[in-house]
Amino acid sequence: MSHAHGTRIQEFIGDPVSEAPVVGREKLEEIFQDIQADMRFDHELNGCLNCGICTATCPSAHYYDYSPREIVQLLWTENLEGIYDAMQEKIWACAQCYTCAARCPFGNSPGGLVMLMREVAIKHGMESARNVLRPFSRVMLKLISTGNQLAPDMISKDAFPDWGPNISKVDAPLATLRRAIPVPTLHTTKTAWEVNLKTSVELYTIWEETGVLDSLKTIDTNLFDVISDIMDEKRDDWQDFLDDQEDEDDE
Ligand code: SF4
Ligand code: SF4
């Protein structure tokens, strides 16, 4: 991870101390309860020795003002103000690599706990979540409306300069690899993004039932409206198709 990348993240996040709104005790408790209520919480936090092994192995800790040990301690000691403060910036520095989870002597997953805190930050519409996710709206649009964001033919050296020299390893055998994948829909952007109507409607139902759309509405109303329009249109098309089928069966 480069310093330039680090600066970009800091720019998205802004100044957490001055922007963090003052919140009451009740709200702090509600936020912590939301984190704790997740079924993953007890699995990912089993106690904490404060040994710092997680921070010593954490790549993000080398580049940011961020420490998984600190995050775990805040949760373990139920430091509600500290948890809230960490959600204004620090939790967004984690790269979700899970090196920490492989090393913790207590079997904790600091990276997993950070993920829970991020989800709760989104649920509560925190400004830090909006700022970090805003640059990804185009990705979210494609991902939610098609189920795919990236097709193999989009992976090229030019498109991913941030992958550094390693992109050449991906690029070299890609033509062969593409032929080796026996699923035609994985081969081109066009087919990857042109999703079967029934599959699209099923995807929208999943996004709705799992709360993905509620989360989206909380942090990006415009994108939610755009995606809702796409969904409505495809659902209408699907209903028309079903009606046509019914008419044909009646004939
Ligand atoms: S989370 Fe695990 S590795 Fe990190 S400080 Fe606590 S006990 Fe140590
Ligand atoms: S998952 Fe996050 S906290 Fe854990 S080592 Fe990776 S970057 Fe650090």
Mean pLDDT, all residues? 84
SSE pattern, N- to C-terminal: HHHHHHHHHHHHHHHHHH
Q: Uncertain segments of ≥5 residues (pLDDT<50)? A: 1-18
Largest sheet: none
The CATH architecture name of the largest domain reads: Orthogonal Bundle
**What is the domain total for the residues?**
2
CATH topology of the largest domain: Fumarate Reductase Iron-sulfur Protein, Chain B, domain 2
Q: How many beta-strand elements?
A: 0
- CATH class category label of the largest domain: Mainly Alpha
Percent of sequence in beta strands: under 5%
* Overall geometry: globular
Helix content: 55-70%
Rounded Rg = 22 Å
**Classification by helices and strands:** mainly alpha
Span from first to last CA? 64 Å
Bound molecules: iron/sulfur cluster
The number of distinct helices, counting runs of at least 4 residues, comes to 18
Care to give the gist of this entry?
By secondary structure, this protein is mainly α.
For this entry, give a set of tags.
binds iron/sulfur cluster; 2 domains; single chain; Fumarate Reductase Iron-sulfur Protein, Chain B, domain 2; mainly alpha; 18 helices; 251 residues; disordered N terminus; 65% helix
